[in-house]
Design goal:
By secondary structure, this protein is mostly helical. Helices cover about 45% and strands about 0% of the residues. The radius of gyration is 15 Å and the shape is elongated.
Length: about 120
């Protein structure tokens, strides 16, 4: 619980949103509009701060590329070919769970077993 609450505050701070707007159900990509380079920078920051290992995190499942013009062209191409590219919603709770399971801890606190 402490880790998830810390993460909510850190995400609010790093994405320039009011803390009250960020809760466990908040979608980082949909509700907060984090995408592309901003998503990458957020995850690098969180990895550095918490020690979480993002090696196995499928960033492309949740966030698109920064070059939106290119993405629009690709989306049109996929539409005409009948292909779909769907980015999944990533809630704060889902990210907190991933990070906890991959070694993430509140900065400055000893790694302790237990719940997030």
């Amino acid at each position: 619980m402490a880790f998830e609450q810390w993460l909510e505050g850190e995400i609010a701070s790093q994405t320039n949103h009011d803390r009250e707007r960020v809760n466990p159900a908040t979608s980082i990509n949909d509700d907060l509009g984090v995408d592309g380079d901003d998503a990458y920078e957020l995850l690098v920051h969180l990895e550095r701060e918490t020690g979480a290992d993002f090696t196995d995190f499928a960033i492309g499942d949740y966030f698109g590329a920064e070059a939106q013009g290119y993405e629009v062209i690709q989306a049109i191409r996929r539409f005409f070919k009948g292909e779909k590219k769907i980015w999944y919603r990533l809630s704060v709770r889902e990210l907190a769970t991933f990070m906890w399971e991959h070694g993430g801890r509140v900065p400055g606190q000893a790694a302790a077993a237990g719940n997030i």
